[in-house]
Amino acid sequence: MAEFVIKDEDLASLKNKVVIVTGGSSGIGLATVNLLLSLGASVVSADITEPKETPASSFLFVKTNVASWKDLSALFKKSKEQYGRIDHVFANAGIGPRANYLAIETDENGDLIEPNTQVLDVMLKGVINTASLAVHFMKQQPEGGSVVLMGSSTGLQPLRAPDYSTAKHGVLGFGRGYARLMEAAGLPIRINTLMPSWTTTNLLPDIPGLMKGAKHEAQPGLVVARGAAYLMVDASRQGDVVFVCDGKYTEIEKAVLAPAYEAIKGAGNPSDDEILKRMLELPVPAGQ
């Protein structure tokens, strides 16, 4: 297992960088905003909820529903107009489970109502669109940039909240594929994914003693925030998937996931990505 330690000095190069954080008004997002500001970064916080206070002059809040392409487009446009560039993006915004797949409801006419898709809209489509816009703006900069995607340990295992689990499984797949696409396109943009376990956020119901009753202690949001900041500054991190649990950081893409796939597909067999690469390199037949 590729466990690593994050030192304070590792994050120093975030000074004067411009960072967009979605979901920045609470939980992990707020912890990340405060950490980045303390490191001297200029931060654009995007959330549907306004912050309780404006923490610094180098802080910009843009009210944003990440499920809305229009809102996200406006967010990136305002960030570029304000600071002239975008160095890093943390696609973090999220909500708790919503869909009930066991009891389909009916409307006033007795027609069946589609299960709630809000979690998928916010935490999968919202992440994909945030990352896509980040790349659109960053590829206009010679220095490129980096994108950190908020996944979850629930994207690595079965979970009895299928909409939440599906969104996080999707983020993992998108992050792995998008990182490979950056490499194939030769773009100087790094894509990495965080997969934190139980963390103190606004997604946990505000019930006193809940986690204690469940006999589990959630890690503080700052632990995950430091992981996000580290992935922004460490230029060697590309296509990494970092599991964050009990305050510890473990890279699992290169250490666990990729080797597991290699073992499963068998020696000598090309990966699906290699086959796709070969197909894309074939000449297009005349008239096609």
UniProtKB/TrEMBL annotation:
Keywords: Oxidoreductase. InterPro entries: NAD(P)-bd_dom_sf, SDR_fam. The keyword Cytoplasm does not apply. It comes from the Eukaryota. SUPFAM superfamilies: NAD(P)-binding Rossmann-fold domains. GO terms for molecular function: oxidoreductase activity. PANTHER family: 3-OXOACYL-(ACYL-CARRIER-PROTEIN) REDUCTASE (AFU_ORTHOLOGUE AFUA_6G11210), NAD(P)-BINDING PROTEIN. Belongs to the short-chain dehydrogenases/reductases (SDR) family. This is Related to levodione reductase.
